[in-house]
Each structure stands twice: as structure tokens, then as C-alpha cells.
Amino acid sequence: MNLHPKKLFPEVENLELLNHQPITKRDLLNFSNIILSEIKEIVGLKEQPTQWLKSSEVRKLLKISPGTLQNLRVNGTLNYNRIGGILYYKYDDIAKMLNQ
């Protein structure tokens, strides 16, 4: 992780002044907030995907082939809904399957 001083101290115009200033509690709070947001981004604690996923999205999410996804459908491991010619899967069903 490479943090630029301007990101930590946006209010400071001349970064050379930072060499002779003590660290304040506000500085530590800013730093901790930045670190937490970076960790969340790395770990992937982002928003949950949409409620309904298409086959291609499920394959990408689970890193499986189309044949494997078809096997999950055929043997009843993964529920799906067909609307027109498109198969949709509930995100919650995928999470349940992974937790079993």
C-alpha cells in the first residue's frame, strides 16, 4: 500500500512542513480511516451483488465451467428460474450452497 502524504494530510500545502510537526490525534484518526477503507477494499467487504445473477455471472463468481453449472442445476444442488431463454440464480441460494 502506497499512501501519498496529500491523501493523509489534504489540508497541508507545503509537505516539507510535515517534517517538523508532531502527529496529532486527528492525524491518527485520518490515518486509521484510510487504512480501514483500504483493508475493506482489499478483503472485498463490498456491497452484496445483485439479488438475481445470470449464468455467466454465477460461473465467474464460482469459477466453474458451463458444464459444472449445468450439473448443479440438473442434480438440484442449485435452484434457478428461467425467464425467456435466460437462467437466473438467487445470490442467497448460491451462498447457501457454498455454506453446506
From TrEMBL:
It comes from the Bacteria. Residues 52-100 form the Helix-turn-helix domain. Signal peptide: none annotated. InterPro entries: DNA-bd_dom_put_sf (IPR009061), HTH_17 (IPR041657). PANTHER family: HELIX-TURN-HELIX DOMAIN-CONTAINING PROTEIN, PTHR34585. This is Helix-turn-helix domain-containing protein. It comes from Flavobacterium gillisiae.
